[in-house]
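Researcher: I'm preparing a figure for a lab meeting and need a structural model of a single chain. I don't have an experimental structure, so a prediction will have to do for now. The sequence is pasted below. Please return the structure as tokens so I can convert it later.
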Amino acid sequence: MTVVIGFEGSANKIGVGIIRDGEVLSNPRRTYITPPGQGFLPGETAKHHRSVILTVLQEALDEAGLKAEDIDCVAYTKGPGMGAPLVTVAIVARTVAQLWGKPLLGVNHCIGHIEMGRLITNAQNPTVLYVSGGNTQVIAYSERRYRIFGETIDIAVGNCLDRFARVIKISNDPSPGYNIEQMAKKGTKYIELPYTVKGMDVSFSGILSYIEDAAHKMLSTSQCTPEDLCFSLQETVFAMLVEITERAMAHCGSQEVLIVGGVTCVCEKVCITVERTHDNRFCIDNGAMIAQAGWEMFCSGHVTELSDSWITQR
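Model: Understood. Here is the structure written out token by token.
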């Protein structure tokens, strides 16, 4: 039985997960949370990760009931992500691999989300909608590769939601997107916003600029409530994503769709075909998803040489 430990820390979450042949043995995580109206900066995020990563590593081993000698491979997020947090995780993973005498594997963060989703849902060949704070893509597997059929041409949908949350001072705890969702449930008035779909691609920067400007004017004159703005923004951006996902499904002849990434946590009611969003513990960035992708790679004969164990933000 193959046991892989995975380190994830590409953004504001630091996690260590352990997978044994498709079974999640442990998956502890910490989140760097900033005050309302603020985002998280790379340097400060990396400092947070450095302060807790060894504690999280020990928690993962204790929770799994394993020791270093029980681990077969060490996987880490190679990218994409924020530079400083990625470097922090890569250094720890490289150090652990050398101390324990284990092979090292650099994992693509996006593939980690997809492989974890496939493991949890048992989806065989889904069209994937990957939505998070840093990425928005429609992906399908074709000719032994994951192919991008559509994506954002500017900012990610999660970034759009996060930045709007800062405008109206919504709390970052547990996450801006979750709090926008709770407020949207109380919205009663739909405000028309720019809807930008270009073929298979989407654009969120225009809708963000528009609602940032409109929010202050409309709220100050009582034309709407913050809940109405959350409702309108969420409905518009999600409709854009559903449109390009359905188009990709038609193109691929796919009967199942898998939604992965942190924004998936607000998609509790999915009304398309056979798959729904999987367990929220595995939607948010976590170590187990890196361990699972690493497990797939390791069992296929892949390893990352120390000289190639760099990181990439893109």
